[in-house]
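Lab meeting, item 3. Inverse folding demo.
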C-alpha cells in the first residue's frame, strides 16, 4: 500500500509541476516565455508623442529645479522617416553609433547602434535606442537651464551649430543668444563607443546677476500595457528606471512606482552617481561630471511619458561678465561588461557596472563571465567556450566527487546494519531514526556528503543563467547546426516535427533537442547511482530527469548545453570512480538482483 501511495503522490507531483510550471514562468521569468525564436523584440524605430502637436511636454522653469513633465495629450504617431526631416540636424557618425542631434531643442533624439542588430539576420536593421518626439516609443536626451526672469532656450528653440557632423575627432558646439544679454552654448563631444559629453555654458553679458540651474534629462514614452515579455522586468532582471543614489545602486524603482509618484517624482542624491533607464541589453544614463551636490529625480506625465533628470541642488548665481559651465556625460548604448568597467575606472563613475543587474552574486557572476568571454576569444565560439568551461568546473569539483563516492561506499558498508535497525524498530519510527543517526556517528558516515556536489552546482548554474540572459556579448551568438542563438531556447522541438508542421507549441510543450538530450543523459547518470534504500526516493530520482526536461525547455540553449555536457562528464567520472571503488559496484549489482527477485515474488503472489 505504501508503494502504491508513493507512486500516486509522485504522479500527482509530476502533474502539478508540468501544468503549474507555465504559470510560474510567466510570473517570474517572463523574458523566456514563448521565446523559442532567436529574435530580439525591438520596437519600430519611432516614438510616441508627448503632446498633441508632437512637441515635448510643457516645462516648469523654477530656480533650483529642472524641466519636468506637466501633462500632455497623446497625438498622432507618425513614421520616423516623416519626422526626422522636419528639423535641421547635426549628423552623428562614430564607429558604433549613428544618428543625429536635433537643432530644435538641442535634443539627441536619433541614435542607432550600428553593430547590434534587431534580429539574427545580419541584414536586419540596427537596434534603435533614441527616437524623436512624434513617433512610436519616443526616447531622447536634452540639456538646458531652469530659472526665472531670464529668457531661456526650451524644446522649441532652434540652435546654431558650428559643425554639421559630430564625430570622435570633431566636437560640435550649439549656440543661442536670447537677445537680452545672455549667450547659451552646448558643446557635444563623443568617443568611439557610447559616451557623449555635454558641456553647457552660459555667459552673462547683462548688467545684473542671474540665477540659473543647468539640467540634463532623459525622456521616453513607455506603454506599460504593451511591453514585450523579453523586455519586461522580473525578479531576476531589473528593467526600467535605474540609478545610483548616495553611492548605492537602486533596483527597487519600477515604471509603475514612477507613474504613481506622477509629477512629484521619486528623488535621490545623485552626487557621484548617475540616473537613467536600463533595458535588458541597453542603457541611457545621465552622469554628472562635477562633484557638486546633484539631485536626481524620476517623473512621469500623461501619455505614458517618463523622465529621468539631474540638476544642481540650488540655482547658481552668474554675475555680469561671468560664465557658468557645467559638464554632464550621457551613456547611450549597449551594456557591454568590459566597456562599463572601463568607463567606471576611467571617469570614476560609481557603480556604472551595476547597470547590468548581476544581483547579489555579482562577485561570482562577473568572474564567470570574464572566464567565459576569455575562452570565447580563444576559440571563437561561445558554445565551445561553454563546453570548455564545463570541463574546468567539473575538474575543480573532481576532488569533491571523489569524496562523494567514498561516502557512498561507506553508506553501502553500513547498509546491513541499517536494515537490522529498521527491522528491529519498524513500529517506532522515532527510535529507528535515533538509532540510525547513532550508527552514522559511530561509523563516521555523513549521509549528506553525496549531495554536496549538487549544492555546489546551484550557484554555478544560477550564475551561468544570469550571464546568458544579461550579457550583450552572448546575444545572438551561435553554437552549431540549428543552435543560432545560445541566449535563446533551443528552437527545434519534436512536438511540431522539428518545424515541418507549421505550428508553434505553447512554451511548456516546446521541448527542444538539447533539453531532451539533457534528460536522457541525466537518466543514465542516475541509473549509475546506487539504488536508494527508500523506494519513494528511488521513484523521485527516476522521474526527476523527465520533469527537468520540461522545466529547462524555456531556458537559454547555452544553459541546456552546459547541463548536458556536465551530465556526460559526470557519467564518465562515475565509471572511472566505480573502478576505484569495486565494492560499490558489486553492491549495486547485488541490490539490483534483490530488487528483481522481490519484484518477481510480488508478481507471483499476485
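The presenter then showed the designed sequence:
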Amino acid at each position: 500500500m505504501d508503494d502504491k501511495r508513493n507512486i500516486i503522490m509522485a504522479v500527482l507531483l509530476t502533474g502539478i509541476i508540468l501544468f503549474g510550471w507555465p504559470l510560474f514562468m510567466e510570473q517570474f521569468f517572463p523574458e523566456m516565455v514563448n521565446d523559442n525564436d532567436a529574435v530580439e523584440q525591438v520596437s519600430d524605430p519611432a516614438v510616441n508623442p508627448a503632446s498633441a502637436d508632437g512637441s515635448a511636454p510643457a516645462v516648469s522653469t523654477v530656480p533650483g529645479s529642472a524641466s519636468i513633465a506637466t501633462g500632455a495629450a497623446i497625438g498622432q504617431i507618425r513614421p520616423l522617416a516623416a519626422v526626422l526631416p522636419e528639423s535641421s540636424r547635426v549628423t552623428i557618425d562614430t564607429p558604433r553609433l549613428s544618428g543625429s542631434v536635433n537643432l530644435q531643442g538641442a535634443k539627441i533624439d536619433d541614435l542607432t547602434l550600428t553593430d547590434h542588430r534587431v534580429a539574427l539576420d545580419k541584414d536586419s536593421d540596427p537596434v534603435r535606442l533614441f527616437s524623436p518626439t512624434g513617433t512610436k516609443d519616443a526616447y531622447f536626451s536634452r540639456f538646458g537651464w531652469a530659472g526665472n526672469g531670464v529668457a531661456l532656450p526650451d524644446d522649441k528653440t532652434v540652435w546654431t551649430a558650428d559643425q554639421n557632423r559630430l564625430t570622435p575627432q570633431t566636437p560640435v558646439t550649439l549656440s543661442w543668444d536670447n537677445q537680452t544679454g545672455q549667450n547659451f552654448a552646448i558643446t557635444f563631444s563623443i568617443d568611439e563607443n557610447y559616451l557623449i559629453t555635454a558641456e553647457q555654458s552660459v555667459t552673462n553679458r547683462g548688467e545684473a546677476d542671474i540665477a540659473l540651474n543647468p539640467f540634463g534629462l532623459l525622456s521616453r514614452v513607455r506603454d506599460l500595457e504593451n511591453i514585450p515579455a523579453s523586455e519586461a522586468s522580473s525578479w531576476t532582471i531589473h528593467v526600467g528606471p535605474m540609478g545610483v543614489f548616495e553611492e548605492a545602486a537602486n533596483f527597487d524603482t519600477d515604471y509603475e512606482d514612477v507613474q504613481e509618484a506622477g509629477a512629484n517624482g521619486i528623488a535621490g542624491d545623485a552626487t557621484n552617481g548617475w540616473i537613467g533607464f536600463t533595458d535588458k541589453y541597453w542603457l541611457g544614463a545621465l552622469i554628472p561630471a562635477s562633484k557638486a551636490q546633484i539631485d536626481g529625480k524620476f517623473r512621469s506625465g500623461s501619455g505614458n511619458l517618463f523622465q529621468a533628470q539631474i540638476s544642481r541642488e540650488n540655482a547658481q548665481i552668474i554675475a555680469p561678465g561671468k560664465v557658468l559651465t557645467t559638464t554632464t556625460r550621457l551613456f547611450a548604448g549597449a551594456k557591454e561588461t568590459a566597456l562599463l568597467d572601463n568607463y567606471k575606472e576611467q571617469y570614476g563613475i560609481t557603480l556604472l557596472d551595476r547597470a547590468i543587474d548581476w544581483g547579489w552574486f555579482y562577485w561570482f557572476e562577473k568572474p564567470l563571465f570574464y572566464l567565459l568571454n576569455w575562452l570565447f576569444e580563444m576559440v571563437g565560439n561561445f558554445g565551445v567556450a561553454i563546453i570548455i568551461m564545463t570541463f574546468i568546473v567539473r575538474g575543480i569539483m573532481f576532488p569533491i566527487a571523489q569524496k562523494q563516492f567514498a561516502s557512498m561506499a561507506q553508506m553501502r558498508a553500513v547498509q546491513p546494519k541499517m536494515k537490522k535497525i529498521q527491522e528491529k524498530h519498524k513500529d517506532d519510527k522515532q527510535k529507528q531514526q535515533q538509532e540510525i543517526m547513532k550508527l552514522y556517528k559511530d561509523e563516521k558516515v555523513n549521509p549528506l556528503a553525496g549531495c554536496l556536489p549538487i549544492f555546489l552546482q546551484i550557484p554555478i548554474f544560477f550564475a551561468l543563467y544570469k550571464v546568458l540572459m544579461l550579457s550583450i556579448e552572448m546575444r545572438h551568438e551561435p553554437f552549431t547546426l540549428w543552435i543560432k542563438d545560445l541566449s535563446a531556447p533551443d528552437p527545434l522541438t519534436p512536438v511540431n516535427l522539428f518545424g515541418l508542421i507549421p505550428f508553434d507549441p505553447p512554451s511548456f510543450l516546446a521541448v527542444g533537442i538539447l533539453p531532451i538530450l539533457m534528460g536522457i543523459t541525466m537518466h543514465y547518470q542516475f541509473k549509475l547511482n546506487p539504488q536508494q534504500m527508500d523506494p519513494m526516493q528511488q521513484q523521485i530520482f527516476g522521474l526527476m530527469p523527465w520533469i527537468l526536461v520540461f522545466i529547462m525547455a524555456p531556458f537559454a540553449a547555452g544553459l541546456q548545453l552546459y547541463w548536458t555536457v556536465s551530465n556526460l562528464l559526470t557519467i564518465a567520472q562515475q565509471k572511472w570512480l566505480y573502478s576505484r571503488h569495486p565494492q560499490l559496484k558489486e553492491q549495486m549489482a547485488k541490490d539490483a538482483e534483490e530488487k528483481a527477485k522481490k519484484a518477481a515474488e510480488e508478481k507471483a503472489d499476485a
